[in-house]
Structures are given as C-alpha cells and as structure tokens.
C-alpha cells in the first residue's frame, strides 16, 4: 500500500515538473510551428543558475526568480538574434535551436563541471508530513501544488486576457489572425520568452528531486517531446494531462522495471501516433 | 562533375596513404570515409525525400551493437555477424518507418529524435546485454586473403572499397526512375499522389534504404574503433551527421562527402586546441543554417557566380 502511495506522489511531482517543461514547448510549437530543441537545455541551465544563486547564499524562491529571469532573457535573445532572422523557414529554425542547445549544454559543462550537483530543498519545505500514518516528503507535495498554480496562471493568461485571445487565435489560424491585425512577431517573442522562462523555473524546481548533471537536457528533451506528442501540440490541456500520464508511467516503470523504464516511456507515444497522430487534445497536425 | 574529375579524385583517394606520411592521417582518412557513408545514407532521406531525421546515429548503434554482441558474446564469424547486423538494422528501420512516416516535417523530425533516444536509452540502461556505459569492446577487424586490416593502410583501402560501393549504389538509386519519384514526393507529394504514385510507400522504401546504408556505416565504424558505447548513439552524433549533409549540400551526391570531410577535419583540428568540440559544433550548425542554408557547394557556386556576374 505504502509503495503505491509514495510512487503516486512521486509520479505527480514528476508530472508537475514535466508540465513546466512541456507547456512552454507546446505553446511555442502551436504558435511558431517550430520544435524548440533547446528547451531541455533551458531546463538544465535554469537549474544551474538557481544552484549558483543558492550557493551564493540567497533563498530558494530567489533562485526560482533568478532562473526565470535569466532563462527568459536568454530566450528573448535567441529569438531575436537567430529565430527571427529565419522566420518562415521552420526547419532552419528547428536546426538552429539544436545548435543553441549544444552550445548551452557544452558551456554549462565547462562552467559547472561534470559531476552531478545535488540541490537541497528549501528548509521550510524539507522534511515530511504524516498522513494516515504514512510520511510524505513535503517538497514533492509543494511541487505538485506549485505546478497546479502555474497551470492555473497559464490557463487564465490564455483564456481571460487579450494576449491569450491573440495567442489562441494565432495557434488556430495564423494567417487569419495576422490578417485582422494580430502582431505575430511580437507574440512570437513573448511566447518564446515565456516558454524559456517556464523551462528555467521547471529546472530549478525539479533540482531537489532530480539534481543537476550534464546530460539532464538530453534526458528531458525527449520526455518533453513524448508529452506533447501524446497530449497534442499547441494544447495546454494536452500538455497538462500528458505530463501527469508520463509522470505516472515513468515513476512506476522506474520502480517496477528499472532496466526498461526508459523504453516504456516511449510506448504511449508510439501507440498514440499509430491511432491518433494529432495527440489526445491536439487541434493541429504538423 | 565530369568523368575526368571523377577519375582524378579516385586516383587521389588511391594514392592518399602514400602522400599522407603517417598512420594518424591514414586513420583520419578512413574516419572521413566512414563518416561519408553515414552522411550519404542520411542524405537519401534528408536531401532526396525531404524528410529531416535526427536519429541516424541509432542505425550506427544498432549495427555496431548487433555485430559486436554476436562476435564477442557468441563468437560468430565476421561475415555472418555483418550480414545479420545489416539485416537486423534494416528490418528495424523498416518498422520505425511504419510509425515515423505517419508524420512529415517537424513532427517527423521529433519522432526520429525520439527513436534515436530510445536506442540510446536501450544501449545505456539495458546493461546486461549492452554493457551499459562501458559499452562492448573486443571486436576484431576481419582478415581478407591473409591481409590483416589492423594495419592502417589496409583498413583504409578496405574502407575505400566499401565507400565506393555505397557511392555507386546510391548514385544508381537516385538516378534511376525510382530516384526521380523520391524527389517528386519531396517537391510535390500531392501531385505525385494524383499521378498514381504511392507516396507513402516511396517514402517508406527510402527510409528503409537509409537504414540499410547506415548499417553498413555502423559496421565500418565498429571495425575502425573496435569498441562501441552509448556515446556513439548520442543526439550530438546524429546532429553531427545531419550537419555533414546540410553543410555539404543536401540532395547532391558529392555534398555529403564534402560535408563529412569538412566536419571531421574541423573536429580533429579543433580538438587539438580546445576540448569543447560540442560548442563549436553548435556554433557551426547555427552559422551554416543562418548564412549558407544550401550548403557549402551551393554557397561556393553562388559566390563564384556573383564574382563573375557582369557589372
């Protein structure tokens, strides 16, 4: 019984982390029609930046804030310097983001070294809580709540603000949206910056459970791909459901079949591609 | 290229070990030829069929792991392991193709990336078979007519022979009527479909052929290094192969070979001065994509035309 409870919490926590990663990826794809292959690198860099902020003596919330700002700014620079100059050529944009991913990954290795770096949970969230005579790590519970708040914030942004209306209109029909005066270029910058910042936040928020190591980017990017292919590209709901589904599959796979967990992760993607290529909640096929 | 330049290049390739004084350079030449086999096979998919794949290192890994495992663990002979590695890799490529070709464009790229990572994950985590991070070592190079391919120049000539066979096979393939239909599915899939061609089947055959030629490269790779580990299957390696194709010129016969030579030379020269090849790879990638998207061959021709153009 306790195995199932603990694993379920682990799954939820991992799902929450995946959501911060996949939401931005999915939005960027929906809007700009590009797969941002540097997304895993933003996640890892966010964790490293947060780590350095903590090591400099600042608090954990400060680290999250710093990661969001640093990676958001980096995303803006990449969008402005590279992607905008390749506008209209999705394939070149995707390949350029891959180049960016390599530069970030290798420079992080240079700067932070090759050893895995543990990150301690903030002191007010360390320890556990007793529920039904069972101890649950508090940080993981907080992580789930945190990701639900982020999901709620994104939902409000997309559904209740003018910016959100413009984003949704562009995802559904970009040409028509541009035709009635939606400023596409500006939206691209905002969404790319926001997506990058979210990935950075996800990185540092996940660091106490995943730790930070070279190769974290290459571990997370395929999982993000699986989540968005499963949930449907460009759909926030899809990213949300997909993240928690994959969180459960990965955590239980890891615990029950450790040798094959990584392979099991890709099975739902293969099944969904075979029966419903646009994903569970996808409106666009690319 | 006309006939004379083909013969000139062939002669240069034949006398190369004598010109290059030193095992180091002969080995580098062998590595370039092996990389060129990967680039040419990937070019079938990227250049001719217009399907950009980021999982090509997976075929390297499949062929290399199958042949090493059969040689080291079961003690099979070189000929039978090579045959089984090629057949096995091609069959798996065919199965992957069934799934990956449900999509085109960016989605296709994402799916092939995921395939590459599945194979990488398998190599890395399925330690009881693949040896995990340590990989498999102890594969020997084959012997032919009493010639020991452990000797650098003999191995170079063997690699050259395989390279030329692959080149000829791919040249025949892309110049055949079938090659024309492959290009047709890239430029005008709907019109090809309307003309009665089975676009999906043409793409699937190309996808599988790409795996077949890739597996030949994989076997040569493992003969050269006599070692295989998950690092050879990494995303960076797949990206490197794609860079060779794009840098040289996708959709041309010579482009990927030139791209392979450039990338391998750059990698070897750069690694003598800096230990951060991957940063350089990323920067070169961005540079090529942004400024010479058609590849170096096309870029050079444009440059030449611009200079020669009447003022």
Oligomeric organization of the protein chains: heterodimer
Number of helices of chain B: 14
Q: What sort of overall outline of chain A do the alpha carbons produce when their principal axes are compared? A: globular
SSE pattern of chain A, N- to C-terminal: HHHHEEHHHHHHHH
SSE arrangement:
The complex is a heterodimer of chains A (286) and B (311).
Chain A: H1 2-32, H2 39-55, H3 60-83, H4 90-112, E1 128-131, E2 134-137, H5 138-160, H6 162-172, H7 174-179, H8 184-210, H9 216-231, H10 236-256, H11 261-264, H12 267-275
Antiparallel strand pairs in A: 1-2
Helix pairs in contact in A: 1-5, 1-6, 1-8, 1-9, 1-10, 2-3, 2-4, 2-8, 2-9, 3-8, 5-6, 9-10, 9-12
Chain B: H1 3-19, H2 23-48, H3 57-74, H4 78-100, H5 105-125, H6 127-130, E1 136-137, E2 143-144, E3 147-148, H7 152-175, H8 177-187, H9 189-194, H10 199-225, E4 227-228, H11 235-248, H12 255-273, H13 277-291, H14 296-308
Antiparallel strand pairs in B: 1-4, 2-3
Features:
heterodimer, A: 286 residues, mainly alpha, ABC transporter involved in vitamin B12 uptake, BtuC, two-stranded antiparallel sheet, globular, B: 311 residues, two-stranded antiparallel ribbon
Describe it.
The complex is a heterodimer of chains A (286) and B (311). By secondary structure, chain A is mainly α. Helix content of chain A is 74%, strand content 3%. Chain A has a single domain, classed as ABC transporter involved in vitamin B12 uptake, BtuC (Orthogonal Bundle), CATH 1.10.3470. Chain A has 12 helices and 2 strands. The mean pLDDT of chain A is 87. With 311 residues, chain B is mainly alpha-helical. Chain B has a domain of 212 residues. Chain B is 77% helix and 3% strand. Chain B contains 14 helices and 4 strands. In chain B, the strands form 2 sheets. Chain B has a two-stranded antiparallel sheet. Chain B has a two-stranded antiparallel ribbon with strand order 2-3. Chain B starts with a helix and ends with a helix. The relative contact order of chain B is 0.17. The chains are: A mainly alpha (286), B mainly alpha (311). Chains A and B meet through helix 4, helix 9, helix 11 and helix 12 of A and helix 5, helix 11 and helix 13 of B.
